[in-house]
Amino acid sequence: MDGRIACRFDAARVRSTPAFVVDAGLIRRNLGILADVKRRTGCRILLALKGFAMWSLFPVLRETLDGVCASSPDEARLGREEFGREVHAFAAAYSEKDVRDLCATADHMVFNSLGQLERFRHLAVAESARLGRTMQLAVRINPEHSEGAVPIYDPCAPGSRLGIRRRDFLPDRLCGISGLHWHNLCEQNADCLERTVAAVEKNFGPFIRGMKYVNFGGGHHITRPDYDVDLLCGVVSGFMRRHGVQVYLEPGEAVALDAGYLVTTVLDVVQADMPFAILDTSVPAHMPDVLEMPYRPHIFGSGLPGEKAHTYRLGGLSCLAGDVAGEYSFDAPLAVGDRLVFTDMAHYSMVKTNTFNGIRLPDIAVFDPAADFLGVVRSFGYEDFKTRLS
C-alpha cells in the first residue's frame, strides 16, 4: 500500500481500538472495476474467502461477484449460507468427512491429486445426489511456471505439493471431470498471467477443450491503479475463444484492495535504541502478514525513517520481541492516546487474526461515505478467547 488514498473518516469517530474499518464506498469502487472485466470478457469472478470473508458485506459483493471459492468446509458453509451463489471448494487434501460436508454446501469440488480424485469421486457424486444437489468435479494442475517473488506464496516453487504436474497428468483417469484449476500468482499484474497462460497451453493444451471451465486462480491485482486491465481482458477473452470454455477468476485481494484500515492507539512511548511507540494492537495477532510476507504497512500521515521530524519504531503489546510493524516518521511527536491508522488492512488481516497472549481481536466496523455512517458490526471479548480453548 502506498498511501495514495486519503483517509475518508475521522479516526476519532472509532469508538474503541484496535478496530478494523472497511470503507464500503471503496469496496464498491473495486467491484465496479471487476464488473467491467466481467462485461468485457464474459468471465465469472469469485470471492476468495481465504483473503476476505467479511460476510456482513456479502449483500454488496454478490451484486457483482458470481460466488465464492472456499478452502475448507467451514468457508464453504459460510459461502452457501451468507453469499448464496456458486461455491467452489479446493483443499490440498480432503478427509472423508470433508467431502461429505462439502457435498451439502459446494457446487464444485477441486481435487489436488489424482489419488484424491479416485478415492472420493464416487462418494462426492453419490452423496450430493442423495442430498438433491449436483456436484461438478475438477482437478488442480501445476503449470510449473513461477512468477512469485516470495517462495512461501509460490505454488509452483520446486517441491510444491499443490497441483498435478504434467508428467503425472493422466487423461484416461479424468472421467467426469468438468474443470481445470491453477493458481500461481500473488499480487501481480496481467503480464504474469499472460506468461502463465502460455505455459499452461504448452503443457496442458490438448486437455482444455474437453472441459466446461478453467479457473485461473487468484493473485490478480486487478483493482490496483497500475494494473493492465486491457491486457487481462485480452488474455481471458483470447483463452475463451481458443478453447471454448468458461473462465473463472478468484481474487481475494482485488476485491478489498486499499479498502480497509486498522485503527490503533498509542499506549506508551519508551526510549530504546530509538524512540519506540507501543500500540494497543499486535502484529502477530492482528496483522500477521506483516511478519509472514514480510512487508511494512503504510500509516496515514507518516513518512519513511528520517523523512519527517520525529522517527519512531512502532510495535505491539504482545510478549513477542519481534512484535514490530516497522520504523516511521511523523511531523509531530507521538503521545499516549494518539490514533494511528494502518492502511490496506481488509484482506489477509481479519481472516488471519488470532488471540496470541489473550490479546482481544479488533472490532470490525464499516464506514459508508454515502451515508456518512461509521459503525461497529462485530466486537469480541473474553468468550471468543476462551471458547477456542478447552
TrEMBL record:
Which residue intervals define the domain Orn/DAP/Arg decarboxylase 2 C-terminal in the entry? 152-345
Per the UniProt record, which residue ranges are transmembrane? Answer: none
For activity, the cofactor(s) needed are: pyridoxal 5'-phosphate
Please name the GO terms that the record assigns under molecular function.
diaminopimelate decarboxylase activity
Q: Which Gene3D superfamilies match?
A: Alanine racemase (3.20.20.10), Lyase, Ornithine Decarboxylase, Chain A, domain 1 (2.40.37.10)
What domain of life does the native source organism fall in?
A: Bacteria
Q: Which residues bind substrate?
A: E253, D289
Q: An example of a Gene Ontology BP annotation on this entry?
A: spermidine biosynthetic process
Protein keywords: Decarboxylase, Lyase, Pyridoxal phosphate, Spermidine biosynthesis
Which reaction is catalysed here?
Answer: carboxynorspermidine + H(+) = norspermidine + CO2; carboxyspermidine + H(+) = spermidine + CO2
- The record's EC number reads 4.1.1.96
Q: Which InterPro entries match?
A: Ala_racemase/Decarboxylase_C, De-COase2_C, Nsp_de-COase, PLP-binding_barrel
Q: What is the top EC class of this enzyme, as a single word?
A: lyase
Please report which protein family the annotation says this sequence is part of: Belongs to the Orn/Lys/Arg decarboxylase class-II family. NspC subfamily.
Which named protein is this? Carboxynorspermidine/carboxyspermidine decarboxylase
In its UniProt entry, the species of origin is given as: Desulfomicrobium orale DSM 12838
Which lineage?
Answer: Bacteria, Pseudomonadati, Thermodesulfobacteriota, Desulfovibrionia, Desulfovibrionales
